[in-house]
Amino acid sequence: MDRLAHLGKKLTNVTTLRNRHVAIIGGGYAGMAAAVALARNDIKVTVYEAGKVLGGRARQLEHPQLDTALDNGQHLLLGAYQTTLALARLVNPGTAAWLRQPLQLHTQNGLQLAAPRLPAPFNTLLALLTAKGINASQRLAATGFMMHQRLRGFKLTQDITVAELLIGQPPHLIKSLWEPLCLAALNTPIATASAQVFLNVLRDSLTRSRQDSDLIIPTIDLSAFFPVPAADYVRSNGGDIVMQHRVRSITTSDTGGYLVDGAQYSDVICAVAPHQAAALIAGLPALMPITEQLNSYSYQPITTVYLQYSPHIRLPRAMTGLAGTIAQWVFDRGISHQQHGLLAAVISTAGEHSKLNHKALAAHIVAELHQTLATPPDAIWHQVVVEKRATFSCDTHLPRPTQHTSLANFYLAGDYTASDYPATLEAATQSGVKCAHLILANNTTKP
Question: 300-391 adopts what CATH topology?
Answer without folding.
Answer: Polyamine Oxidase; Chain A, domain 2 (3.90.660)
